[in-house]
Amino acid sequence: MPDAGAGAAGTALDPAGPLLVVEDLKVHFPIRRGVLFDRTVGHVYAVDGVSLSVQRGETYGLVGESGCGKSTLGRAILRLTEPTSGSVWFDGVDVAAMGTGELRRERRRMQMVFQDPLSSLDPRQSVESILVEGMKAHDLAGSAAETNRRLRQLLAAVGLPGSSLAKYPHEFSGGQRQRIGIARALTVDPDLIVADEPVSALDVSVQAQVVNLLEDLQRELGLTYLVIAHDLAVVRHIADRVGVMYLGALVEETTSEALYAEPLHPYSRALLSAVPVPDPVVEDSRERILLTGDLPSPANPPTGCRFHTRCPWRQPTRCDDERPELVEHRPGHKVACHWVDGIASGEITPRSENVDVL
Ligand SMILES: Nc1ncnc2c1ncn2[C@@H]1O[C@H](COP(=O)(O)OP(=O)(O)O)[C@@H](O)[C@H]1O
Ligand code: SF4
Ligand SMILES: [Mg+2]
């Protein structure tokens, strides 16, 4: 692994190094037009230069509005979507350089849990057949009796009775189906789980149960998680570190505590200002940062800072012209904004029309 890949994310603390290192990863989808000739008329810059690393046993939360490229990033890490450029190192091995055979073997160690358990579970397959499939694909299925015992163990680990094996996905509630999705990921004994909006399709009352299950399993099995969510509350609870994504790139990355205590990027500030505070005194004097305008199209991202078309702190003309890099402004706290210090000190204030005092 190259030195740059080790990054500043704490390798000195962990002699074994990070489990996952992503370097300048890009996924650009071609936009094709034409009836006779299939012409490429542009690209959707879904992921446009993301670098991050995840330590063993860590939970990295990835948040951002719908369409900012979270799922594409997750899929590109597992090479379910082919990256345009950049690299992904999994346990020191370059995923992009893996041949089909090696990729198939390594996939066992990197599993994905999807948002909508109903559409990701084949309705015509029993739970037993869904669970056995991955084990067979990786030659992990033993004798019928051994496999049955293993499946019952897995179901118990995700809080479902052994009798579930003979049932079909539609016979379960949304929360139970997500438990089956998690059990399916666990059948092959993975090291990394990329969970893409694992609780977004579930009732709020069930969300916490599934999040708690993921945490329990992590403790018991030593799993490493990349948890993707558009909901900051979900990530706050589960993540050790959080990356905030906007239009295909990270704009801020730090520990969950630091992000929620003091978000430094204007976009994170706006997102967090929309979350109510439990303390009534704080809540009453809270300022809400309003974002105007829609998320620009990733096919035509703004020049300079990608957030400049919506940023209440935008300054002429550097924000429009120069793309800020994600750099460490406080220990372990990276931000991509030219004016972090002035904004944090209050020297640079947001435009008043973007501030709503509650
Ligand atoms: N296979 C694809 N082909 C073309 N565009 C895609 C494809 N998958 C995703 N996109 C586009 O890439 C952008 C990011 O999508 P996605 O990664 O799904 O975002 P998120 O998960 O954050 O909602 C969106 O504009 C989406 O329409
Ligand atoms: S660089 Fe400028 S436009 Fe971008 S977030 Fe910072 S202040 Fe806002
Ligand atoms: Mg998504």
From TrEMBL:
<dbReference type="Pfam" id="PF08352">
    <property type="entry name" value="oligo_HPY"/>
</dbReference>
<dbReference type="InterPro" id="IPR050319">
    <property type="entry name" value="ABC_transp_ATP-bind"/>
</dbReference>
<dbReference type="InterPro" id="IPR013563">
    <property type="entry name" value="Oligopep_ABC_C"/>
</dbReference>
<dbReference type="InterPro" id="IPR003439">
    <property type="entry name" value="ABC_transporter-like_ATP-bd"/>
</dbReference>
<dbReference type="GO" id="GO:0055085">
    <property type="term" value="P:transmembrane transport"/>
</dbReference>
<comment type="similarity">
    <text>Belongs to the ABC transporter superfamily.</text>
</comment>
<dbReference type="GO" id="GO:0005524">
    <property type="term" value="F:ATP binding"/>
</dbReference>
<dbReference type="InterPro" id="IPR017871">
    <property type="entry name" value="ABC_transporter-like_CS"/>
</dbReference>
<keyword id="KW-0547">Nucleotide-binding</keyword>
<feature type="domain" description="ABC transporter">
    <location>
        <begin position="31"/>
        <end position="272"/>
    </location>
</feature>
<keyword id="KW-0067">ATP-binding</keyword>
<dbReference type="InterPro" id="IPR027417">
    <property type="entry name" value="P-loop_NTPase"/>
</dbReference>
<dbReference type="Pfam" id="PF00005">
    <property type="entry name" value="ABC_tran"/>
</dbReference>
<protein>
    <submittedName>
        <fullName>ATP-binding cassette domain-containing protein</fullName>
    </submittedName>
</protein>
<dbReference type="GO" id="GO:0015833">
    <property type="term" value="P:peptide transport"/>
</dbReference>
<keyword id="KW-0813">Transport</keyword>
<dbReference type="GO" id="GO:0016887">
    <property type="term" value="F:ATP hydrolysis activity"/>
</dbReference>
<dbReference type="InterPro" id="IPR003593">
    <property type="entry name" value="AAA+_ATPase"/>
</dbReference>
